Amino acid sequence: MDFMKLLKSIEELLYELVSWVIFYPLTLWRIIRDPLGSLAYAERELQEPEAQQYDDAVSPPILLLISLGVLHVLGTFITPPTLPETTGLLADVRNLLAFRAIAFSFFPLTFGLVVLTARRARITRSTFKPAFYSQCYATVPFVVSISIGFSLTAWVEQSLAAFFCGLAVLFLGLVWYGIVQTRWLAMSAKIRKLWAALIVLGALLFAIPFFFVVAAVIGYAMSTGQVL
To answer: CA-CA distance, 151 to 62, in Å (whole number)?
Structure first.
């Protein structure tokens, strides 16, 4: 009986992994093509029965995790080989991916709280989950641009063209993210776009430096094997 349950679990896992090959690019394209519709979809799907949620897409947190895994593999090809290898706990791929997942989750966490505050909604587990899930969708293209952009800027000593291309990718990703967040905040919280833009700008001015400071501190501690 237990053996049959194990086979059934393996069957479901295999199907889920194969389905990602189809639904991952479709979900990513949907976010890029219609970001506001995708964010609304992410919140709306949580109201469906659990078995029917995200039936035609990859769920937001899983999409973010898959993207980080793909970017890790891609980074091994586009990052210059002259960079020093990671040491300590971060030398383990699993630890590195877990660290990136936690670090980049700071953005949907921050903007999820911003959206709920602008809506004047009470912050609870039930209200925060839809906001966080929708923000995971918005964060994925932003994470892709950051990762690819920084990988290209690391070629500054070998190729200025790659360096400036990396800066352009970073800039475009940041602008896209800011515009999407502004439009979503204005629409979902029913506030003026100018006021929404100021809120988003303030959130970015807080989130980005804080993200890099925390990432640097945790990354240094983990790379040296020290315990915070």
So the answer is: 23
Q: What number of residues does the chain have?
A: 228
DSSP-assigned letters across all residues of 131-179? HHHHHHHHHHHHHHHHHHHHHHHTTTTT-HHHHHHHHHHHHHHHHHHHH
Tell me which DSSP letter residue 227 carries: -
pLDDT in tens, 19-58: 888 999 999 999 999 999 999 999 999 999 988 899 899 9
Query: DSSP secondary structure string, 66-128?
Result: HHHHHHHHHHHHHS-TTSPPP-GGGGSHHHHHHHHHHHHTHHHHHHHHHHHHHHT----HHHH
Structure tokens, 159: 């190729």
Residues 20 and 55: their CA atoms lie apart, in Å, by 12
pTM, to two decimals: 0.83
